[in-house]
Amino acid sequence: MSDLLWQKPGVTVDAQIQRFLAGDDVVLDREFFLHDIVASTAHAQGLQRVGILSADELAGLERELAALADDFHAGAFVLDERFEDGHSAIEARLTERLGDAGRKIHTGRSRNDQVLVATRLWLKEKLARVAALSREVAKVALDRAGAERGLPIPGYTHVQRAVVSSAGMWWAGWAEAFIDDAVRANDTLALVDCNPLGTAAGYGVNLALDREHTTAALGFSRMQVSPVYAQLSRGKFELAALEALGSATLDLRRIAWDLSLFTSAEFGFVALPAQYTTGSSIMPNKRNPDVIELMRATHASVAAARTEIEQLLSLPSGYHRDLQASKGAIFHGFGRGLAALELLPALLANLEWREDRLRAAIDAGMYATDVAVEAAIAGVPFREAYRAAAAASESAGQGRTPEASLAARTSPGAAADLRLDALRARWDAL
Ligand code: ARG
């Protein structure tokens, strides 16, 4: 391993203890190494502005930081156990290439604000992706809601047939859900979008750092003001980000559940394109919807990451090494969550309804609520009308059509009017 930044003369660092301290940290740091490099560049620019670096030193640092990013991209520089962490690796490389300019880069910063700034930059990108994917899902759902508003499907409560619904109603439900998820991701992005760089170890530093410069250079919309809060917010903003992701993966879990039921032979409502299915190693007849099952499982990873961070946050104020464990959680949670959400728009765009099966699943009993409400409109007290419809059982619904039932509830101006224009306006504003 390269020299530890904090090593004291005459004190040997036990290898086993060092391995425990390091864990998989340096490997995890690969995930936001480029963000750390970008933030290091902004920090170096700030140091030149307050006279710590000369113009030449800054030019050298900018050049070497860009070269490091290129080498990392190309695989010519590997971030591995030779270094304690990504932060040390940057300083080691700059020192090796530039000498004193490299030894100056850490003036006025701590790895504590360095890891915070890299995490916030990384999460901003991931939350923007959650918002964009939720928006894409909502678009597919909105388009299909408009096109399929007249296709009747059974509406369930308790997984028991309840009333006539439509593919349009089903899609509009998911459209509104994923619009909310996009709003939530954007709102959380705005919360995460602040610059902790310059707060050092959590108590500021006796150097007039140009925090306005680093805030603007890194594209943050504001500065995180209190150095103490910069540390207190670690874990908390990661938790908020995972909650925003979880809002989308929870909806994903529920839509996957619907599709898991609907693609079964017993329901037979939906045909999945073959590429979303797998086979069995023993049962030659099987076509299994593994993709939707793994989508359904995704929320477990997101929720586990959330829980891990929440458990870590039982800490007094200030930095603690415990906080390092939040990185693996967010990388894992966002890795799984985004991988699943990436597949969802195309899957939804490609699934096909089987109209014969949908119509066959609508029975006359599903008009009972319509019958009771019609009698109530004619002046019969609702409870009496309800009892009469229940007593008449299936015969009350004889001769009715799904189309008429849907028209009475979902046509323009009716109580369950799909109001796709209102949803589209919210979607446009995302
Ligand atoms: N890997 C560390 C983390 O993620 C970086 C900060 C180390 N700071 C310290 N004081 N040991 O928290």
Automatic annotation (TrEMBL):
Which reaction(s) does the protein catalyse, per the Swiss-Prot or TrEMBL entry?
Answer: 2-(N(omega)-L-arginino)succinate = fumarate + L-arginine
> What's the superkingdom here?
Bacteria
Q: Where in the cell is it found?
A: Cytoplasm
Q: Residue ranges of the Fumarate lyase N-terminal domain?
A: 35-302
What EC number(s) does its UniProt record assign? Answer: 4.3.2.1
Q: In which pathway does it act?
A: Amino-acid biosynthesis; L-arginine biosynthesis; L-arginine from L-ornithine and carbamoyl phosphate: step 3/3
Q: Which Gene3D superfamilies match?
A: Fumarase/aspartase (C-terminal domain), Fumarase/aspartase (Central domain), Fumarase/aspartase (N-terminal domain)
For this UniProt entry, the molecular function terms from Gene Ontology, in alphabetical order, are: argininosuccinate lyase activity
**Which InterPro entries does this UniProt record tie to the protein?**
Argininosuccinate_lyase, Fumarase/histidase_N, Fumarate_lyase_CS, Fumarate_lyase_fam, Fumarate_lyase_N, L-Aspartase-like
- The kind of enzyme this is, by top-level EC class, is lyase
Which keywords appear in this protein's UniProt record, sorted alphabetically?
Amino-acid biosynthesis, Arginine biosynthesis, Cytoplasm, Lyase
Q: Which family does it belong to?
A: In the N-terminal section; belongs to the lyase 1 family. Argininosuccinate lyase subfamily.
Database matches in NCBIfam families? argH (TIGR00838)
Identification of the protein by name? Argininosuccinate lyase
Q: Which organism is it from?
A: Luteimonas rhizosphaericola
